[in-house]
Amino acid sequence: MPSFPSHRPRRLRRSETIRSLVRETSLLPSDLILPLFVVPGEGVRRPVASMAGVEQTSADELLRDAEEALRLGIGGVLLFGIPEHKDEAGSSGYGGDNIVSRAVRRIKAELPGLLVMTDVCLCEYTSHGHCGVIRDGDVDNDATVPLLARMAVAHAAAGADVVAPSDMMDGRVGAIRKALDDAGHTETAILSYAAKYASAFYGPFRDVAESAPTFGDRRTAQMDPGNVLEALREARLDVDEGADILMVKPALAYLDVIHRVKAETGYPVCAYHVSGEYAMIVAAAERGWIDGDRAQVEALTAIKRAGADMVISYYARQFARRSGG
Ligand code: PBG
C-alpha cells in the first residue's frame, strides 16, 4: 500500500480544476429524465403543495416544459396521466385516446427529437387507486396484465419511445413485449420497474398523480425494503421477459440494490430518485438547514456512482438550468 509521506491524497484536491480532472463520476443533464404530469384541459398549470417546482399541466403547457427539457439537453421526459374519469378497471388509461397518448402525439408532432417515456400503471386511472383490477380485496395479477399491455400498445402507437411499467405485476414485461411486437412496435423499448419497493417515500407523488389507494396499501405487489436477493431475481425475470432497461426505485435508500443489479445483470440501470427523497431535501433547504442545490447534486451523483446509468429526477430541470444549458 502506498503510504504517507510520499503519498498525499490532498494533492489532487487543491483546486476545482484538478478535482474535476480526477472526478470519477460526473453528472450531466443528459443523464436525467424529467417526470411530467398531464391533466385534462387547456392552459392548466397547477402547483402541488408537497412538491415544490412540480406542476400538473394540461398538454399545451406540458409542451412548453418538454420544449425546455429538450433545449436544456435533458435525457428525456417521463409522462404520467391524470384522467378526467376514473373507474374500477382504470379504463380511461388504455383506450386509444387516453390522456397520455394524446400528450405523446402532441410532443412528437412538435418536438420529434425529445425522448418520450410513459408510465404504464393503472393506479392513476382506477377509482380505488390500486395498480390493477381488484378481486377479493387485492389486485388480481392475471386480470391486470392484459390491461397494462393494452396501455403500453396505446402509448407506443402514439409515438412513445420507451414504456415504463411501474405496477409490479408478475409477467407483465413478457406480456407487454409480446403485445408491442404483435402490434408492430418492435422498436419500442421497455424500462421495467424490476425492483420497486413498497416505500414511504412515494407520499408526495400520490398527491401529484392523485393515485393514493383508498384502502389498504401496495405491499402485496411492491417489494419488501429488507430484500436485495429478491431484487436480483426480479431483475433476471424481467431480462428474460424482454426488458431493455431495469429500474430500481427508490434510489437513495437503495444504493446497494442499484449497485448489485448493475453488477450482476450488466444491463442499463435507471434509478428513480422519488418524490419523497426530493421533497425532503426541498423541505430541509426551506428551513435553512441544508444547501438544497448542493444536496440534490450530491444525491444524484451518489446514485450514478452506485451504478445507475440514468436517473429520473424532479430536480432535472433545475440542474440543467444551473449547468448553463
Ligand atoms: C405508480 C407509481 C408511483 C410512483 C411512480 N409510479 C407510486 C406508487 O407506486 O405508489 C412514485 C414516484 C415518486 O414517488 O416519485 N404508478
From TrEMBL:
UniProt entry tagged with the keyword Magnesium: yes
Binding site for 5-aminolevulinate 2: S275, Y314
One of the protein's GO biological processes: protoporphyrinogen IX biosynthetic process
Protein's UniProt keywords contain Magnesium: yes
PROSITE patterns, per database record: D_ALA_DEHYDRATASE
Keywords: Heme biosynthesis, Lyase, Magnesium, Metal-binding, Porphyrin biosynthesis, Zinc
List of residues binding Mg(2+): E234
Recorded catalytic activity of this chain's protein: 2 5-aminolevulinate = porphobilinogen + 2 H2O + H(+)
Pathway noted in the entry: Porphyrin-containing compound metabolism; protoporphyrin-IX biosynthesis; coproporphyrinogen-III from 5-aminolevulinate: step 1/4
Enzyme class: lyase
Binding site for 5-aminolevulinate 1: R206, R218
EC number: 4.2.1.24
Entry-linked InterPro entries: ALAD, ALAD_AS, Aldolase_TIM
Binding residues for Zn(2+): C121, C123, C131
GO CC annotations, alphabetized: cytosol
Entry similarity comment: Belongs to the ALAD family.
Subunit comment: Homooctamer.
Protein name, entry field: Delta-aminolevulinic acid dehydratase
